[in-house]
Amino acid sequence: MIEPATFLSLMQAINRIQKFDNSGNYLTQWGSSGQGPTQFFLPNGLAVDASGNTYVTGFGPILKKFTGNGSYLTQWNITGAGNGMATDPNGNVYVASYSNNHIQKFSSNGELLTQWGSTGNGNGQFSNPTGVAVDESGNIYVVDQSNNRIQKFKPAPLGAPLDVIASAGPGRASISFKPPLADGGSKILSYTVTSTPDNITASGASSPIIITGLTDGTTYSFNVYATNASGAGPVSVSSNSVTTTGPYSVTAFISRGNGTISSPNPLVVASGGTSTFTVNPSSDYSLSTTVNGTCPAGTWNGNSYTTGTIIGDCTVGFLFNPALNITISGRGSVLLSTGGSCTANCSQYLNVDSLVTLTPLATNGFMFGSWSGACSGSPCILSMTEPKNVTASFGCAVKTMYINLLPSPQPYCGGAGDICTIVPDQGSICLPSSFESININCPKLISIGGGCDDPSVTTPPPGGTTTINGSLTISDGTVNVNGIEIR
Q1: Is 72 within 8 Å of 94 (Cβ atoms)?
Q2: Does the N-terminal or the C-terminal CB of the chain have fewer CB atoms within 10 Å?
Q3: Residue 347 · residue 340 · CB < 8 Å
Q4: Mean pLDDT score of the chain, rounded to an integer?
């Protein structure tokens, strides 16, 4: 068969193929002497299929396949020298073997489908066959040269597909097979696969065919039959038995922290499906996006988590991060080693089981006093196994030149730049008779008296005065002043 509007010329002596249109105008050529992909040794067999692909044989036991423009596609071995070739409507290739006295039938990809003939002069025997042709009905004509005759063969009835092999997946199976040895002289239009049990069917033009809708966990075998223009052919031998995978159990659990899983648990999922769980943290916890367990990793959408593709029983564990609640008493802040700080009362959710170090930082004019709650010592190191509450207390400090602190006991500050802490919530400061300046920044009730030149005094002396030559600055708090002169 030659593609429409063209014909080919096989030039044996110079080892090439020439292509012409139907008016004899030259189009292209390919081939030379040699053993390369596009070379020949005395080519003497030529055929073209319905797609325009060109097949060439020579005096070597090789058949070569080209595109219609001479691009090399593939090649395969034949028995003996091929002296004549033809193709049928299915794209199968027939080769007349001159020296072996038989006809070989190949698929378009070189798979040997069948062969027939032997040496002799009886029906179906050959003596140096040199040509072969196929008509539209699939009848095969062979030039039986030395017997001086032409033999006609009726195509064998449509056969059953061969070598049916099944492989199972989730709710499906893939069925591979080989075409029948005989196509009944007509192009095979389709193949149909049928399952046992359930009689589920699927069709396709070639192998493999995927059949879906199978029940997970069920064992199946499969048969295949071919259909051509004359109808359906015989059913193949059953395939191997396979069991579809699934269904699977997906179990969710709380790995660390405290929260709830509101979805049904566990979930039963077909193989290849996914599972979705909705999770909610308890009070003083937040939801972590970290997930553990054995299920394939998935994705979050708000507080709903969907696993990856399920291919077996598996688990998924959820984590909830506890809150660290920090209260600030006085003026200061708390620095967290995990990042950030609290300058006022605050809450932070930290990774469950993580360690965090809290460092108190006093505002200028204040001093850190103590921790209470879950903290002790400074710095404070906490293991966040659960929600925790801590309080950082800061007291105020006063910078003076010379200060007595009342009531008893009275810490004594005797030099420039000394810091005296007012404890408890109120106290008294007694200044010496001459003083440069004082700055007070303390949100407490403080009394200032004068005339305290002796550090051992316990109360401001009657009539005692202090002259402040610089300034008295009150930034915060309430101050009672007695015996103070400001110049």
Answers
A1: no
A2: C
A3: no
A4: 84
Cα–Cα dist 469/283, whole Å: 58
Closest CA to 163 of 153, 175, 145, 155: 175
- Sole residue written with tokens 């295949």: 224
DSSP 218-246: -EEEEEEEEEETTEE-PPPPP---EE---
Distance CA 180, CA 157 (A): 10
What is 386-402 written as a DSSP string?
S-EEEEEEEEEEEEESS
Q: Please check whether residue 223 is in contact with residue 232, taking contact to mean a CB–CB distance below 8 angstroms.
A: no
Are the CB atoms for 58 and 39 separated by under 8 Å?
no
User: Which residue is it, tokens 């299920």?
Assistant: 295
CA nearest 47: which of 5, 86, 74, 82? 86
The predicted pLDDT at position 275 comes to: 94
Cα atoms in the 13 Å half-sphere on the side-chain side of 59: 7
- Please tell me what DSSP assigns to residue 146: G
> What residue type is 127 in one-letter code?
S
Quickly list DSSP for 434-451.
Answer: EE--EEEEEEEEEEEE--
C-alpha of 58 from chain center: 53
Chain segment 97-156, per-residue pLDDT in tens: 988 999 999 989 998 888 999 999 999 999 999 999 999 888 999 999 999 999 999 988
Rounded distance between C-alpha atoms, residue 414 and residue 15, angstroms: 118
Tokens read off for 323? 């809150």
For the structural domain made of 6-153, what CATH number should be given? 2.120.10.30
The answer to whether residues 85 and 132 touch, using CB atoms and an 8 Å cutoff, is yes
Question: Residue 475: which residues within 8 A CB-CB, separation 6 or more?
Answer: 365, 439, 440, 441
Q: Give the chain's length.
A: 487
The domain locations on the chain are 6-153, 162-243, 248-321, 323-395, 401-486
Q: Give 315's pLDDT tier (boundaries 50, 70, 90).
A: very high
Residue 48, CA atoms < 13 Å, CB-side half-sphere: 19
Instruction: Extract the tokens encoding 258.
Output: 């405290």
**What six digits make up the tokens of 283?**
């009070």
Strands 45-48 and 140-144 come out as: unpaired
